[in-house]
């Protein structure tokens, strides 16, 4: 699996606690777990991954990073993990699988990219079991799924607390949505917007400011 822009955006944008426990659901390459460890120096991060090969790759990646002592990768199904772990978390992050128009033929990629083994209602239901009071659930997903996912959240007692709409180029329709929910009754938040590129190959200053700590190629840009 490759490191994608979706995970980088979520890892840079999500509000994280200064201490406590963070959970990354469907860790894939381990990028979200690593970014969380980089940003919050007094936390312990757990990444869970249902695919055995991906979990092993995530372990290798995390072991090669400077924050490896605070990251644990588990090969586990989220449903089973949620019901068996004794841990509680202050923040949960996920770049979950989702349905698209066509399913790719490769089984591992199909599991990673599409909501076959992990549905959004399960994410909200099980995250409620795992979060400390006042904890946050932050997700990134295709913008076209927002209404369906937000309705699922509201039906299970969650309120949207932050929202970022992402498009790739000026004038293009929204591509991704980054959302944070809390299990509480909250007023609807103001919506923020981010455009990734001014034109193909040229990043916007807003995108650089958000992600520069995580991209070597952006770290030296003004």
Short description:
This protein is an alpha/beta fold. It is built from eight helices and ten strands.
Describe the SSE topology.
Elements: H1 5-13, E1 19-25, H2 31-39, E2 42-49, H3 52-63, E3 71-75, H4 78-84, E4 89-94, H5 107-113, H6 120-130, E5 131-142, H7 146-155, E6 159-167, E7 176-182, E8 192-195, E9 197-199, E10 202-203, H8 205-211
Parallel strand pairs: 1-2, 1-4, 2-3, 4-5, 6-8
Antiparallel strand pairs: 5-7, 6-7, 9-10
Helix pairs in contact: 1-2, 4-6
Q: What structural category do the secondary elements indicate?
A: alpha/beta
- Count of alpha and pi helical runs: 8
Shape: globular
Biggest beta sheet attributes? 8 strands, mixed
| The CATH homologous superfamily | Vaccinia Virus protein VP39
Helical amount among residues, as a percent range? Answer: 25-40%
Q: Could you give the count of β-strands?
A: 10
Count of domain modules: 1
Secondary-structure element series? HEHEHEHEHHEHEEEEEH
- Average pLDDT taken over every residue: 89
What is the percentage of strand-forming residues?
A: 25-35%
CATH class annotation? Alpha Beta
Low-confidence stretches: 99-103, 111-118
Spatially, the strands of the biggest sheet line up as: 3-2-1-4-5-7-6-8
CATH topology: Rossmann fold
